[in-house]
Amino acid sequence: MSFVNKHYISDTHFGHQRMLDMQPRPFTDIHDHDEWMVTCWNDVVGRDDIVFHLGDFAARLHETDRIRSLFSRLNGRKYLVIGNHDVDKKGALHPTLAALAWESRPEHGLRTKDGGHDLWLSHYAARTWPSSHHGSFHFYGHSHGRLPGVGRSRDVGVDVPDVDFTPRTFAYLTRGILETENLKMRATRGDVDAALAILDRAPDVEPDPGDEL
Ligand SMILES: [Fe+2]
């Protein structure tokens, strides 16, 4: 039996032309944009791997054949946490997405475990979440890199620099959070030299809160 990895991603917005103007996505052609993300996805996700998509999967959902074809080209067993672009005008999951072969029925929130940690997944960022006071983590999307996480939470959308259009693992996504915690702990202890060493390795990312997308 092969080893199964879990990956997380959000806000791919496949086929969403307006994303190329609203976000700093380095594409002029939406087809190139989509193909690049398919390549990034399949470069890291194996056929039996698991992928949690945290919403805003694609635009032009009425183009059923295009969405179905795209979905079938993406490796892995896929779960969807519903985003605001994944629903119809009444707020129900769009029928095109509902008909795809997700591993389980798409939900607005999902509680799971990874790396021995509790993990809460939702499209929208939360200020608190299940077991947050007992060390659980929270991944979200929607904000396209403009809403910094609080505590053990973070945006896992494709526009965040260290996500970079690619599904990422729990270990990869939480590395910065744990390093920051380590830094604070060491600083509290007065271990200034160790704290500065960690600071040197911290990613230089300072997203600004902005309009919702
Ligand atoms: Fe989005």
Account of the protein in words:
The structure is a single chain. The protein is α/β, with parallel strands linked by helices. The chain contains six helices and seven strands; from the N terminus they run E-H-H-E-H-E-H-E-E-E-E-H-H. It has one domain: Metallo-dependent phosphatases (Purple Acid Phosphatase, chain A, domain 2, 4-Layer Sandwich), CATH 3.60.21. The chain has a four-stranded mixed sheet with strand order 4-5-6-7, covered by helices on one side. The chain has a three-stranded parallel sheet with strand order 1-2-3, with no helix packed on it. Strand 2, helix 3 and strand 3 form a beta-alpha-beta unit. Helix 5 runs antiparallel to helix 6. It is globular. The mean pLDDT is 92. The structure holds fe (ii) ion. Fe (ii) ion (FE2) binds next to loops.
Write the layout of secondary structure elements.
Layout: E1 6-9, H1 19-22, H2 30-44, E2 50-53, H3 64-73, E3 77-80, H4 95-98, E4 109-114, E5 117-122, E6 137-140, E7 153-155, H5 170-188, H6 192-201
Parallel strand pairs: 1-2, 2-3, 5-6, 6-7
Antiparallel strand pairs: 4-5
The structure holds fe (ii) ion.
Residues 11, 13, 56, 83, 142, 144, 213 line the site of fe (ii) ion.
